[in-house]
Amino acid sequence: MGTMSNAHDSSYKLLFSHPEMVRDLLIGFVPGDWSQLAQFDTLERVNASYVSDSDKQRHDDMVWRLKVGPHWVWVYLLLEFQSQPDEWMALSDA
Q1: CA dist., res. 17 & res. 35, Å (int)
Q2: 91 exposed, middle or buried (CB, 10 Å; 0-12, 13-18, 19+)?
Q3: What is the DSSP string of 4-51?
C-alpha cells in the first residue's frame, strides 16, 4: 500500500475512534430493534492486537463492545481505503 492509502486508513481509524461515531455507524447500518436495547453509554474500545498460535501478530483495525440488554456484544470494524473498485467486495442493496 502506498502513502496515500495509509493516510486515508489513519484518518478513518481516527474518525471511528470516537464512541459517538461508532454509535451512529451502528444505528445507521445495522438494522433491527436491537438498538432500542443497546446501552450506548457502555460502548468502549478494547484491545485489537492478537498473537496467533503460530506466533504471528495480527492487528485488527478496531474492536468495540457494548451492552445490548444484559449481554455484551463485540463489534469489529475492519476499515480499508480502496483506491479502485474491488469486484470481490461484498455489496449491499441498502
Answers
A1: 20
A2: exposed
A3: HHHHHHHHHHHHTTSHHHHHHHHHHHS-STHHHHEEEEEEEEE--EEE
Whose cell is 445495522? That residue is: 30
Q: What is the 3-state secondary structure (H, E, C) of 46-68?
A: ECCEEECCCCCEEECCEEEEEEE
Predicted TM-score of the model (pTM): 0.65
- In this predicted model, which residue has the larger pLDDT, 55 or 5? 55
Q: What secondary structure letter does DSSP report for 87?
A: T
For the chain, which residues make up each domain, given as ranges?
A: 3-77
